[in-house]
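Sample 1 of the test manifest.
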Amino acid sequence: MQLPAQYRQLIECFDALPGIGPRAAARMAQHVLEHDSGERLQQAILTARKTLQHCCCCRTYSDLSICPLCTDDERSTLHLLVVSGVEDQFRWEEAGYRGGYFVLHGLLSPVAGIGPRQLHLPDLKQRVETLVSAAESSSAENLLVQVVLESSVEADATGQFIEDMLAGFACRVQLLTPGQLAVDLQRARSFSAADHVPAGADK
Amino acid sequence: MKTLFVLQRQPLREQEWLLDIFTAEQGRLSVVAGRSQPQPDLHQRYQGDWARAEDWPQLRGLRSLQTYSLRGANLYCGLYLAELLVRLLPRYEAQPELFLTYVRTLEGLQHPGLPDPWLRLFEYQLLQTLGYGFSWQQDREGRPVNASEFYRFIAREGFVRSDASVAPALRQPLFSGEYLLELGQGRAQRPQCWAAAKQVLRCALEDLLERPLISRELFQPGR
Ligand SMILES: [Zn+2]
């Protein structure tokens, strides 16, 4: 017996998702057809695909062409944090980081078809170019680019490539693990807390 | 227990990975590494076993035997090897010789010297494995290469003797028989020999690839 083409096509769509095999795909197809959550999933995908885009500056997901963080004048333009996903951006925001971001949405992985262009590294280069010339014209200190990635071969290659790519620019590039950045931010926080100790308070 | 390398990893469910692995006994295959295993990575030799499970076999008893630390451009070379294997190697075919060559190539790439000889030997063995092997010492018709002649290389066919005065019109690179013989006899020292080997092997591999290799872009960070 041949199942309807629409049903087979639905299974194929799930099967094509990363990390989903044919059996799991069949289970998901049955689930979205049999339950209300199928309707909600359909709406959520349509709405997200219609309204969300990549911020033209940091490439995070945004419903505007440039995201609120990138238009916030209060943030440092001398710090740029390169992260692999939006969940990392969320994490560092929570930890108190207040500079700019660049979200890669992945790591270099030639086997998976992901190279410098797929990660939009030419856009990162351009962003750094803009920030460096702004820093130069305001005679401020040098831009600090921090690439914060979990340790793996793909992450090391990504960090190294970004470092090579930015070699000619008047900026400092640091490759850090999340643990190292967390310690840095912690330290920065305790310094600024000390700055704000009210005058006359006991030391 | 079998020895294996991870060529590709993608996250599956929480703390689970779908891996494309390379083994001597079964060649390339997909397996799932679960929670209880160490986090799998590329450029490491592992010991492990797998058993049939839903969708993909489940990896068990994964243990790292050796980490190959590749630095600088050699790190990109490691990714290049993996991309070649994933793009060209059929699944589930035993590859004992290529597997050994892969181990030796990773070992060689750990040293800071020029990666060229290691990469060329790997590419040559890969072509042999895929059934597109050729000899540096014989032309397409099986005649011995002559040190004083020049040759063109045609993918899937081999070397063809060419008149040095006519060939430039064909816009194909010409290779000195002297260099080819040095390569074939394993005594290539001069950079010109390795430059010739790189051109020949690239031509042979590109003919088998449907689209350009992504890993090549890693070697040009300035562009
Ligand atoms: Zn933004």
